[in-house]
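User: Hello! I'm new to structural biology and keep hearing that structure can be predicted from sequence alone. Could you demonstrate with Nucleoside phosphorylase domain-containing protein? Please show me the input and the output so I can see what each looks like.

Assistant: Of course. The first part below is the input, the amino acid sequence of Nucleoside phosphorylase domain-containing protein. The second part is the output, the predicted structure written as tokens.
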Amino acid sequence: MPLGGQEDMGVVKEERQPCGGASQAGRSVGPDPTPPDDLFIREMETGSPLWRLSLGTGSSPTRQPPAADEPPRTIPLLGFSLPAMAPPPSEQPDSAAAAGAGAISRVLIVMAMETEAMPLVNRFNLVEAPARESIFPKGASWTRYYGSHKDLHIDLVMPGKDAVFGVDSVGTVSASLVTYASVEALKPDLIINAGTAGGFKAKGASVGDVFIASDVAFHDRRIPIPVFDMYGVGARKTFAAPNILKELNFKAGKLSTGDSLDMCPQDEEMIVSNDATIKDMEGAAVAYVADIFSTPAIFVKAVTDIVDGDKPTPEEFLNNLISVTARLEVSVTKVLDFISGKRISDL
């Protein structure tokens, strides 16, 4: 789902306020002027568990430690080295490489809104999984459709409708939860996060453009503590799919993700810092989960509205939603046609 600009649905445009409201506006977000005490310094020098965790060097049950002669796999960013997500099978641990050695068989499509998803459900005659076949926790509103296309088994999942308000459960929390449950149960070879997005004309985006995200990051997780600030941004490279870009003539651009439809000054500053061409409300959360499982993920985003344009975002989004969603369906179909019979390394 796209993030809008300065307007909200049916709300008169107002001057943007600092994120967090008036109580936050007066607070300092800079570092504590109090110098660190001896314990903090000793912990940094000796590598306390919290400090090691902050640096991302702690162990994870889903990962294997690198070989002694293998250099760390990192992406440089603002002087820090951050992890790249979902390496191809040839670079993954042996067990993951063995699982991905053959042709892609199972594809998980993660979407946020029913309006975005139903054209694909209808295109591939996907069937909604009955309650007795649910892979999700009891009481969850999450929805799964499944079927096949050529050599691929397809599972399409959505967070579904909120039980209280009856609207699509958009945002990072729902996206990460449904993605985690689906990957854990279905063990897909590839994840496709497909949906609509806002675009920036200053970065070359136009309504109807379809992008493959090259990078993802968050723009509304502000943690003004050294290293934790970088964790909050969560910047990472996505799984590279150069052949998809070349053969299908999609655009490439960086994706920034946040949980608000509007855009306060702090969010805007971070979006610029993230060098984003498009922005949504789910992508970076899906990427985070994909990285936990070392499952390759690609992000197909179709632009419904221009954030830095002269039209109100809600109006432009609603006017373009149907036509752009149809374009998204065509684009995802092309991606599935392309990957059928191919290996991950062929993408």
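User: So the tokens describe the shape?

Assistant: Right, they're a compact way of writing down the 3D structure. Reading them back into a model, for example: The CA atoms of residues 211 and 251 lie 5 Å apart.
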